[in-house]
Write a structure and sequence with these properties.
Layout: E1 20-22, E2 28-31, E3 37-44, E4 47-51, E5 57-61, E6 67-69, E7 72-77, E8 108-111, H1 114-131, E9 134-137, H2 144-151, E10 159-163, H3 171-176, E11 184-188, H4 200-203, H5 217-225, H6 231-240, H7 250-264
Parallel strand pairs: 1-7, 8-9, 8-10, 10-11
Antiparallel strand pairs: 2-3, 2-6, 3-4, 4-5, 6-7
């Protein structure tokens, strides 16, 4: 005869079951004993590594009832199978496995400098190759009207231009106003330099410092943050912190998406 051992624990002392949640990359949880909140960046050997909004990493054991997800207690478990490739691109678009780069369109996107171009490539590179859009940098926009005239935009060769510090009254806004063509779209972000379009929390700083007018902005930023006086190395450090659109300010995201839509419109 099968023995029967009933659970005699009073109901009010029994632990209610909690859901098991796969520790997928980018899942944001809070560890219950420490209150550390961050996104999952790694899961291995019974542990999970979280990264908080300041870039700090902590490793925790995946114990039962060890985490909070949206305020609810959960047990993290190892994902059943890691995807062989991301389901989305860095820009958040749905990835197309095996897609080949399209032959380059006649249309182009121009950005002010090399750093702008590298940032756009980092986040939108996969999308741009599928759409056949080439991004070129101008090293400033002082000669923008002549550059646009030389490009000779047309309905089948549209030109999109991303401008730094495009705010009312700025030099950039006055230059942009000199260009008028239905086949040219000029948009911009409010930052003095594209560095500022990277969220400070992604770089591990509380905010981008305010630099007095007349001082080179990038050099001033390095000095204010105590970084070595090497703006090239500083930019590579910043760029290394950008893995997807989540690290960028919305004011840049919307403008780049707008340009891509413009130059790829039928």
């Amino acid at each position: 005869m099968r023995s029967y051992n009933p659970d005699l624990t009073p109901p009010w002392k029994r632990s209610a079951p909690v859901p098991e949640v796969p520790a997928e990359v980018d899942l944001v949880v809070e560890e219950v004993s420490t209150g550390f909140c961050g996104a999952v960046i790694r899961c291995e050997a019974g542990t999970v590594t979280l990264e908080d909004r300041f870039g700090k990493h902590r490793v925790f054991p995946m114990e039962p009832r060890g985490f909070l997800l949206e305020g609810r207690v959960v047990t993290l478990v190892r994902p059943s199978a890691a995807p062989t490739r991301p389901s989305r691109t860095a820009s958040g678009s749905i990835a197309v496995p095996g897609a080949r780069a399209r032959v380059a369109r006649a249309g182009r996107i121009y950005v002010e400098g090399r750093h702008d171009a590298e940032l756009v490539e980092r986040v939108w590179g996969d999308d741009l190759r599928i759409e056949g859009v080439v991004v070129e940098y101008l090293e400033g926009i002082d000669d923008l009207p002549a550059i646009v005239a030389d490009f000779a935009p047309a309905a089948d060769a549209r030109l999109g231009i991303l401008v730094d510090h495009l705010v009312p009254g700025s030099k950039e806004s006055r230059i942009a106003a000199q260009v008028s063509s239905p086949d040219v779209l000029i948009v911009g972000h409010p930052y003095i330099d594209v560095w500022e379009a990277v969220k400070p929390s992604s770089v591990g700083i509380p905010a981008w410092p305010t630099i007095p007018r007349g001082q080179d902005w990038k050099t001033g930023v390095c000095q204010a943050l105590g970084w070595p006086a090497n703006t090239g190395a500083a930019w590579q450090h910043i760029l290394s912190k950008v893995h997807s659109y989540k690290e960028l300010e919305p004011s840049l995201l919307g403008r780049v998406e707008e340009l891509i839509d413009f130059v790829t419109a039928p």
